[in-house]
Amino acid sequence: MKLRFLFFLSFSLAFGDDFITLKEYAKMLYENPRGISCKECHGDNGKEQILGYYTQKDKQVPFVVPDIRKLSFKEFEASLKEVKDSKSIMPTYSLTTNEIIALYNYIKEINKE
Ligand code: HEC
Question: How far apart are the first and last CA of the chain?
Answer without folding.
Answer: 47
